[in-house]
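Record Cytosine permease, 409 aa.
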Amino acid sequence: MSNENHTLGFNHYLFLWFGAAVSIAEILTGGLLAPLGFYSGIAAIVIGHVVGTGILVLGGIIGTQERIPALVSTRISFGEYGSYLFSVLNVLQLVGWTAVMIIAAARSANEISKLLWGLDQLSVWTIGIGGLVLVWIALGREGGLKKANMVAVFLLLGITIVLSTVVFKNSTALTAPPAGGLSFGQAVELSVIMPLSWLPLIADYTRFAKNNKSAAWGSGLGYFAGSCWMYIIGLGAAIAAGNAEPSAMMLAANLGLSALGIVVLATVTTTFLDAYSAGVSFANIFPKLNEKRVALVMTVIGTIAALWFNIEQYENFLLAIGSVFAPLFAVLLTEYFIIKNRKVQAKILINWGALLIWALGVGLYYQFIKLDFVLGATIPVMMITALLYRVTWGVTKQWKYCKKYQIAS
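=>
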């Protein structure tokens, strides 16, 4: 890749990932932590985000150093066919996220329009917001990320301040006792999963970085600050008012018509990343396809899915993401940073040993969910999976299906 493509610096990544974090999904997820109480909820948010964002940054470093997209980097551990499997799973995740973001925004916009004008048209809002995401993707990497996104994030920063004022204008959220019904480990897990869900995407953008330092610090600080802030807003709103729905907060602040613009802007800047990376992941399987065009198609599919998506299954959707990608990146990060195998080997079609350890990790994830471990499931599962992969690597490194010979190497 030519150095002319390495144009994104610290500020671009800071704004990009702060904008990605300022989303309705983050606020709603923070609201799920309300039964824990405010102070314990914040502790879970910070612990989960320190771990999750740290892992996210490591995934981004691979993209910058090797100049390859996130799902292509999985070929380092799993081979070409293995990366196809994870590309399909990632496309499903990203189309799912596109649907979640669009329907959540459409519901908020619909509530606002009902109050302002008596207009109840959820389907119209769903299609309209999906259409705006299509326009954002059409702006392209240079237009969408380096210009429009930077302006949008300054507006979103102002929005977060307004929402914070609404939620914390009195001390109700700070003093309300825990309601119970959610363990600390479950709260940590819900905090880790959100940055983890960006792992299959981050290298799609850090591969264009000027240097490793700017991408790592910009991405890490931008996402950590934005996501923690959104979680805390959702947590406070759910405790104080029993409602983490952003439209309710914005109407309480008398934002009126401006609330519609806020909902749409926050959704478009985040959903753009989901849809675009769905195109990048699909292109890993079919490299001759144009990433942007595929992203446009994925947005259309996500918009159609949003028309039927059951938002009440949101928490299960998050756990499914964790089960797949926590062990996947435990293997890849171990291969890259500990074993120090850092290049894609074109001859390797599939690494059966890596896939076996990943499958064990998936099963282990659901066991830890049942155990309700104090640090959630992602943290122990990634540690155990990484250890298993490193310990067994001396044997399983030979379990590879390769081109030409089609026998174990």
